[in-house]
Amino acid sequence: MRHLSVTTFIHILFSVTLSILLVTFLLFLSWDKDRRKIEEFKRYQLISLTFLSNLKLSPNKEELKKLYKELYLKPVHRKKVAELKLKIEDRGDTLFSGGSELGSVRVFLVDGMRYVYVQRMCYNLLLKDNQPKTYAFEMALGLGLFFMIVLLLLYIAILKKLSPLKELHKEIEKFAHGDMQTRITYRNEDEIGKIAKSFDEAIVHIQTLSHSKNLFMRNIMHEIRTPLTTGRIAVELIDEPQIQEILMKAFDRMHTLISELAEVERITTYGFEPTFEFVHLSECIALAKELLMVENPSLELKIQDVQLHTDSKLMALVLKNLIDNGFKYGKEKKVLVRTHGSVIEVISYGSPLEHPLSYYTEPFSQAEKRSEGFGLGLYIVDNILEKLGYRLGYRYGEKEGSNIFMLIPKSAR
Question: Which of 3.30.565.10, 1.10.357.140, 3.40.50.1820, 3.40.50.300 would CATH assign to domain 277-409?
Answer without folding.
Answer: 3.30.565.10
